[in-house]
Design goal:
Bound molecules: N-carbamoyl-L-aspartate, zinc ion
Distance between the termini: 18 Å
Structural class: alpha/beta
CATH superfamily of the largest domain: Metal-dependent hydrolases
Largest sheet: 9 strands, mixed
Number of helices: 14
Number of strands: 19
Helix content: 25-40%
Number of domains: 2
Shape: globular
Strand content: 15-25%
């Protein structure tokens, strides 16, 4: 049995944000109580040994559930695989991940869904939930067998990275997915507008002579998909929202009662296009980093609930790929191990976001939207939990990263505030920053 003593518990599912004692037994949260004596704990343990953790000065919250993670298996294991990615996740405080479908081959049938799910179970670190594609081969032409894939373990459908350009196909997908009750996740990008663009169109892109992507490349598809989901009464989740126009469109759709949730990535909340340099591809990401006004609108959207979910969009690539010239390097930021710490340091410490809101958006809201276990420390819930030390500082170095990827803007930098103990189903999987 675990006894987490005098720890500041953050559990938005129960509206708890206060010092508590937490008992964990048999893989589950057993009790949360403001005060427990040693005699009481020993009586409850009924002879089982008790490991006591002094939680003073630390936070305990439900493990993060990351709804947008690229694990690259099958097919691109030089970038990442399910084992390395799920180990990186628990190092970063993430106890469940939804694995994106743009692998090689793409996850467009039940046997592939089952493969991803089983590899996740074999790895046995973070829980791994497969996302299936919407269309066969992500070609945008023929729908997959959604009900069958749900049977195999798919929790959502997405052609991420390859947005469905044909509005009728998207309408059909939303309509058909209703039979499964699962959301369609849309990577909103009009390919004609984004073209061969490399970063957000604006003064920095012009100055560097890099081809720009207008904000409308995202927002016009956000508008389209909101109208389609409203008409079909389907279920839509919008991935990695990055423009202020998208935030406003979602805000208005929600006011009309449209069944939509939206996600934002830490890098869009922290960085902007002004920080991109042509000699460093670590900030080359899709959708591209916006302007400071976009970043402000995203933070405000997350504060007021227009944006529901924080997700990493962990997009690992090899060092060789990211060492190419800016125009040729792939889009993506690896972030499983740094995302929570970066959000803590750049947004919570400066009081732009409360830790309570961060945990609600990164744990409780994902569990609710995608019907997953976890996201709560209610007695009886699986003990997927994070002990977070706001004083723990670490230099982000290749030697300590357990992900295969190094494409993070934090490499060589110091971050402060890290998960120091992480449990999945009551099993300790990370201690003092080491994955067990
Ligand atoms: C994603 C990837 O690498 O798979 N890259 C990214 O920059 N987010 C694909 C995508 O969503 O475009
Ligand atoms: Zn995407």
């Amino acid at each position: 049995m675990w006894w987490l003593k005098d720890v500041w518990v953050i559990d938005p599912s129960q509206k708890i944000s206060s010092p508590q004692n937490v008992l964990v037994q048999g893989g589950q949260v057993m009790e949360i109580s403001p005060s427990l004596t040693e005699e009481e704990v020993l009586a409850k343990a009924q002879g089982e040994s008790v490991e006591t953790i002094n939680g003073k000065g630390k936070f305990l919250f439900p493990g993060l559930i990351d709804v947008h993670t690229h694990l690259r298996e099958p097919g691109q294991e030089d970038k990442e695989d399910i084992l390395s990615g799920s180990r990186a996740a628990v190092r970063g405080g993430i106890t469940a991940i939804m694995a994106m479908a743009n692998t090689v081959p793409v996850i467009d049938n039940r046997s592939l869904v089952e493969f991803v799910r089983l590899q996740g179970e074999r790895a046995n670190y973070a829980r791994v939930y497969p996302i299936g594609t919407v269309t066969k081969g992500m070609q945008g032409v023929e729908l997959v067998e959604m009900a069958d894939m749900k049977e195999g373990g798919a929790v959502a459908f997405s052609d991420d990275g390859k947005n469905i350009q044909n509005a009728e196909m998207m309408r059909l997908a939303l309509e058909y997915a209703k039979l499964t009750g699962l959301p369609i996740i849309s990577h909103c990008e009009d390919k004609e507008l984004s073209g061969e663009g490399l970063m957000r169109r604006g003064i920095p892109s012009t100055r560097m002579g890099l081809r720009g992507i207008p904000a409308s490349a995202e927002s016009v598809i956000v508008a389209r998909d909101l109208l389609l989901v409203e008409e079909t009464k389907g279920k839509l989740h919008l991935a990695h929202i990055s423009t202020k126009e998208s935030v406003e469109l979602i805000r208005r759709a929600k006011a009309r009662g449209v069944d939509v949730t939206a996600e934002v990535n830490p890098h869009h909340l922290i960085f902007c296009d002004e920080e991109i340099t042509i000699t460093n591809t670590d900030l080359k990401v899709n959708p591209p980093l916006g302007m400071p006004a976009d970043r402000e609108a995203l933070i405000e959207g997350l504060r007021d609930g227009t944006l529901d979910i924080i997700a990493t969009d962990h997009a690992p690539h090899t060092q060789a790929e990211k060492a190419r010239p800016f125009a040729e390097a792939p889009f993506g930021i690896a972030s499983l191990e740094t995302a929570l710490s970066a959000v803590w340091q750049h947004l919570v410490v400066p009081r732009r976001l409360s830790l309570d809101r961060v945990i609600e958006a990164w744990s409780y809201a994902p569990a609710k939207r995608f019907g997953l276990r976890g996201g709560t420390l209610k007695p009886g819930a699986p003990a997927d939990m994070v002990l977070f030390d706001p004083d723990f500082a670490e230099i982000i170095e290749p030697a300590t990263l357990v992900s295969k990827a190094r494409n993070t803007p934090f490499l060589g930098k110091t971050l402060q505030g890290f998960p120091v103990m992480v449990w999945v189903n009551g099993r300790l999987v990370q201690r003092n920053r080491t994955v067990l």
